[in-house]
Input
Amino acid sequence: ALLKKKKAYRAAGRYRLKKAIFDLGPSGYPFELFIGRLFESFGYQVKTDQKISGKCVQHEVDVVAVKPGEQVIVECKFHSDYRAKTNVQVPLYIDSRFNDIKEKWAEEGRYKDMNVRGYVVTNARFTKDAIAFAECAGLGLISWDYPKDGSLKYFTDKAGLYPVTSLRSLNKGQKKEFLEEGIVLCRELLKNEDLLRKQGLNEKQISKVFDEARYLTGQ
Amino acid sequence: ALLKKKKAYRAAGRYRLKKAIFDLGPSGYPFELFIGRLFESFGYQVKTDQKISGKCVQHEVDVVAVKPGEQVIVECKFHSDYRAKTNVQVPLYIDSRFNDIKEKWAEEGRYKDMNVRGYVVTNARFTKDAIAFAECAGLGLISWDYPKDGSLKYFTDKAGLYPVTSLRSLNKGQKKEFLEEGIVLCRELLKNEDLLRKQGLNEKQISKVFDEARYLTGQ
Output
């Protein structure tokens, strides 16, 4: 019975995952944190909301992810609309921004031995042209279902990166409070029992939330 | 009295010029035609709404202006809101598009001896960052009041490029019909008496419109 419950929870969780990521909105910031966690799960050190000087102007970069020999700058495009597509203008301007930053770093001799790469990540989809341009320009793209072996769908499930918005045992207001505290993953919620208690949940309710969160993240 | 009338017309025309350019909307296409006429007045051969292949993808270019030794591609940003500013993302993506096209041309050995330049033109304003990036990247910018000696305000008045929307002697519907026929300048209207007649204007009314158009354009 426990196994059955576990399986049912996970299936329901996966089914609702796309919606759960949309529910990180309407502001784009929790999605940026979520993408930060994704890069962290691959061993990167992550900073969000950074200002980086380029040769011509200063740029606001959503996520900067660093690991030895590698430096990644990420633009996050959060859409509240399921059908929205990120069009070619976004990879075009990100590539331009990226080149502006790289030129500055080259001038200063910084990160010379590093592999520097730009990424655009969206919760919805990219247009054909956006994908064609990014592939040709060497810019990384991640969307809900692209690329097949590196999409949000793939990573969130593989790495157990279920956002708190996946939980059925929390209501909207409670989820929102977690997001506002910068706690975006079920995995992190499990370390923040206090916030649940502060929200007025009793031990039985907390245990229910923890059960669901554990089942989803496979812990 | 005629001179006084002439002066009054011109002053009123200049005063209303900014609004007249906004009245080219709500669609952005008449503004593209208007910018095409601006480049024509400097001796360029102009085509609007062109598809140009880049190295990575095909681009839709609003205005292509060519003269011996020179090739200009222009992106037009029409805003219906007076206070709108075109931000840095636009020159960033236009520079990227422009480089994509230039790389393709270099591969094919086309326009080798030509000076190739990109432009962004808006009826409203640019942000500081947009101007800083464009100046640094060598991209041309034209807005209502930038650059001082090459703004829309400057050019339209110097070159007598008054749009048909400047005319007080035509109503909204009549102006719209001219725009739909691709007739955007008072100067062109003067060669299209027939359309005024078709719109049901009598000789007296036509003569009034012609007077105003001549005064504005200084003909």
Q: What stands out?
A: Chain A has two domains: 1-23+163-219, 26-160.
